[in-house]
């Protein structure tokens, strides 16, 4: 009989505990409501109860519609479009190198970088020049013999055409071919002699070089790497919406800042494909003076888009909650969903619209559609 009353009390205690939790949750909800945020009905009731209460003061701006321009900023780095491998076309021993042929050195177009020993090339050229002279003599001899043979034949057979064999046509053709071959060998040796002096047709900088006096260089064997100054470019990435702001992008002017120095530049091209992960596009720019730019340097770039007619330049304080604006019209505020073109230097560039008595700046306590307000500048 003793345990019976205890069993009947347990459900009652559980219900009391649940009821206590519900009460605590209701109290927490009531006291957690932010004070001073009445709904529209409460505000209307309050205004009706206190008709003498003044309308809130608001500050406004009255911008003029002017041409605007969007700007896009980005960061990137200096890169090289392509490197050039230093490779001799002839073999030989190095007898002289330019002081510029060192890592970090700069050279001009046509400047001699490496000179190979030229004695072998000079001798080879002299030898083939002698072959040319010999071939010329052989041709002249064949032509003279042919002239004599033709004259004798005409004396013996007047009025008849001289046969090719009598006119020594095969011998003359062979002599001409030998002369042409000798001249070709001479031209090859002349080119080899010129190639013993190594230079490049562009101005650039040396990345690395292993050539030095006394070293033997072999044809086709690399001895360094350089890049042309006009191969230096700036690479940045832009989102699709940023590219849209400056469209058309190619040829667009840019201001490039690198290591505290400013350079003028232009967009040369936009990558044909977007990055498959970020969906951004790589944009390549060229600077007006690329010589001071070192590959690998981080840069900041500012791009200016095309001019846009009829725009407002509004302060950030004019933008209200919901990406809209309040305007004052007939003594009350009303919402305006204007087209925001972009943001730059603490201002919004907005398509021009009819703003009535002005565009409100800053927050308006209890703001709502149709709320009567006073302009601060008229008080």
TrEMBL record:
The chain crosses the membrane at residues 12-31. NCBIfam families: RND_mfp. Keywords: Membrane, Transmembrane, Transmembrane helix. It comes from the Bacteria. InterPro entries: RND_pump_MFP. Belongs to the membrane fusion protein (MFP) (TC 8.A.1) family. It comes from Zhongshania arctica. The lineage of its organism: Bacteria, Pseudomonadati, Pseudomonadota, Gammaproteobacteria, Cellvibrionales. This is Efflux RND transporter periplasmic adaptor subunit. Coiled coil: none annotated.
